[in-house]
Amino acid sequence: MAAETTSNHKRVRKSPLERKREILDAAVRLISERGYNGISVQDVADAVGVTKQGVLRYIGSKDNMLSMVYLENYNEGGNVSEFKSSGLPGSTVDDLRLPAYLRYLVHYNSQRRMLVQLFSVLQVETFNPDHPLHEEFADRQNSIWEYYSGFDWRIPPSFSSFDEVRPTVRKALEVMDGIQLRWLREPAIDLNEEWAEFEPLLFPSPLWDGYR
After folding, report:
1. Is 87:100 a contact under the CB 8 Å cutoff?
2. Long-range CB contact pairs, 31-37, < 8 A, 24+
3. Cα–Cα distance between 190 and 20 in angstroms, integer?
4. Cα diameter, the chain
5. What ranges are recorded for DNA binding (predicted)?
6. Between the CA of residue 91 and those of 94, 155, 168, what are the distances in Å?
7. No. of H helices and E strands in the chain?
8. Spatial separation of the C-alpha atoms in residues 190 and 121, rounded to whole Å
9. Separation CA 30–CA 77 (nearest Å)
10. Residue ranges in the chain modelled with pLDDT below 70
């Protein structure tokens, strides 16, 4: 009987991939709640139930953990390539529409609240020049613009090139960031419905009719 009890309570050994995922999930939750500066590697270890050395074995350092959390979690999904594979209106190669993609991105973000909260917290923290992601966030607008410029968007003929759409892209990203902050607060709002109200202001008629 004692042998059976011991066997039933054997510690389940997780694969390296499972353990790393568990560590990063805990880091996402803790950073989104307290900020990067408000947590330690020990906090993550306690949340997962392993030693600090055990966490460092998978992440290397606290700064490296942050890069993994941001680059491998928040930045990984909701990209244009995924949109092009979605089959949604405005996602085909010959009819790739920027407003349709941004609508898709808002919907994607509406399904990952914790990661959006993580992004919002980091966005404020990274004003500090000493923050590990300071340069990443300082150059975020330029990086996104360069990324979007790599696709052949279908835009109104009144624009001579996609470069002329850059001010609109900047405003759209700023509005999106603001709406997401409001979404994270109480009372709750519907992120998709809120974006739907702003979209005609960013991409007005008749200029963008047929290109949304």
Report:
1. no
2. 31/66, 31/69, 31/118, 31/121, 31/122, 32/114, 32/115, 32/117, 32/118, 32/121, 35/121, 35/122, 35/125, 36/66, 36/121, 36/122, 36/125, 36/131, 36/132, 36/133, 37/125, 37/131
3. 33
4. 81
5. 40-59
6. 8, 13, 19
7. 12, 2
8. 20
9. 21
10. 1-12
**CA dihedral (12, 29, 23, 76) positive or negative:** positive
The CA-atom distances, in angstroms, between 170 and each of 142, 210, 211 are 9, 21, 18
pLDDT in tens, 103-138: 999 999 999 999 999 999 999 999 999 999 999 999
- Please, how many CA atoms are within 13 Å of residue 65, restricted to the half-sphere of its CB? 30
Residues 22 and 154: their CA atoms lie apart, in Å, by 41
Q: Let me know: does 35 contact 119? Beta carbons within 8 Å.
A: no
pTM of the model: 0.88
Residue bearing tokens 């990324």: 147
- Domain limits, the chain: 14-61, 77-202
Tokens of 79: 């990209």
Judge contact between 157 and 210, C-beta under 8 A: no
Phi then psi dihedrals of residue 110, to 5 deg: -65, -15
Q: Which residues contact 179 (CB under 8 A, 6 or more apart)?
A: 106, 191, 194, 195, 198
Q: Which CATH architecture has domain 14-61?
A: Orthogonal Bundle (1.10)
pLDDT of 11: 53
